[in-house]
Amino acid sequence: MRDRAVEERPREPGHPPCPLKDARMIRNSLFRSAALAVAVSLSLGAPTAFAADAATATSPATAVQRQAVAQGLYELAYSPKQNAVFVASSGGFGDDAGPAQVLRLNPTTLAVETRIPLERKAFGVVLDDAHNRLYVGNTVDLSVTVVDTAQNKAIGTVQLMEKKTGKDGKAAYTHDLRELVVDSAANRLYVTGHSSQPDVSSVLFVIDTTTLKVINTIPGLGNAKAPGLALDAANKRVYTSNLLADLVVVGTDSNKVEAQYKIAAEQPMNIALDPAGKRLFVTDQGSEMLRGYQAKSSGLVSKHPGQRVLVLDRSNGKELASIPTDAGPLGILLDAPRKRLYVTNREAGTVTAYNSDSYQKVATYAVPTHPNSLALDAKNNVLYVSIKNGEKDAKGSEESVARIQL
């Protein structure tokens, strides 16, 4: 799944916005989110910074095709089983807002093949291809909509939490959503619940995908926004990050926080996990807006400008390497067999590709204005990118999906 100046995300009427957002709000997209294949040869005690490869040429525009498809695009997923791209559309906000929907796109032409109507606005997504299901985060409604990808229709909604009456007498949610991950074999869906209050912990919702019921709400993710989420199904761990510069490890058997580490990333956004090694890749955004939020909400004093991917040892949170990126790194995706790491750089309007062994930059793809989330067709080596509009784009105009032939 995946917020963005952090990504942009919606503001719920009467409810504080998520601090991750585009230039207009303190919340960004994804709601709501996203760690690699070869063992790291670096010493745990010797983190290394890698400069970008100056000889790397920008990739040709012919490698990128782009199509405007709908207002309010957020996360997307590619289904090998359906041979289709599914992208979430909130429809936007305001009088000119379009319908909430999931769009099924042709993976070659990006033409809209089917529009799947939703009752609630769509932001983050995660695909369970084995069971023909797309789980869609309804951030402002604190729920998840279940879409049948074979029948192209919504088949259910999971309400994660009810509104509570605050001191002002108004009912509001105490949390909002960002990322989702699914353990298909174990029939479990995990969703991060951002705390919207400094005295309330962020949580991890655990949903049984056979009954579509919440079976656990795990606290302890930190009294701050918790944007990052990654699943290590083989080792029964879920990794989350928060804006207190913590990496929090939850056991999927114990259903409790089993470890917490201070990390060098001050604004850890999305996480990619190395299934064969011990690494986590974390985008450290470096947003000035977020620095202000962090200083005000938690007193965090910034010591690093961010604008990088941090490589961590997932067993202890120690820094293995720091990879410079373009401005505003957000989404991250690992193609482990090809040893490629892809990053969306929201402010720069680029997607950058790195060798996941050497950490050297190997390509840059221009996809302005604000590239958000990523999905991969591994068989055909094609990358898909959702792209948000900028402040200069016409209000109510459609946002885009890009197809990059790698």
Major beta-sheet overview: 5 strands, mixed
Q: CATH H-level name... which superfamily?
A: YVTN repeat-like/Quinoprotein amine dehydrogenase
- Helix coverage percent: under 10%
**Total domains:** 1
Number of strands: 31
Quick one: overall form? globular
CATH architecture: 7 Propeller
Low-confidence stretches: 1-57
Number of separate helices = 1
The overall pLDDT, averaged over residues, is 88
Determine the N-to-C terminus distance.
22 Å
- The multimeric state of the shown protein is single chain
- CATH secondary-structure class: Mainly Beta
What fraction of the residues are assigned to beta strands by DSSP?
over 45%
Q: Please compute the radius of gyration using only Cα atoms.
A: 19 Å
**CATH T-level fold name:** Methylamine Dehydrogenase, Chain H
Sheet with most strands: strand arrangement:
1-24-23-22-21
Structural class: mainly beta
InterPro entries: Host-pathogen_enzymatic-act (IPR051200), N2O_reductase_N (IPR011045), WD40/YVTN_repeat-like_dom_sf (IPR015943)
Protein name: YncE family protein
Task: Give a quick summary of the entry.
This is YncE family protein. The protein is an all-beta fold and 406 residues long.
Secondary structure topology:
Layout lengths: L47 E2 L14 E7 L2 E7 L4 E6 L11 E5 L6 E6 L7 E4 L4 E6 L4 E6 L4 E7 L4 E2 L5 E2 L2 E9 L4 E8 L7 E6 L4 E6 L10 E4 L4 E6 L3 E6 L4 E7 L5 E6 L5 E6 L3 H11 L9 E6 L5 E6 L4 E7 L4 E6 L4 E6 L5 E6 L3 E8 L4 E7 L10 E7 L1
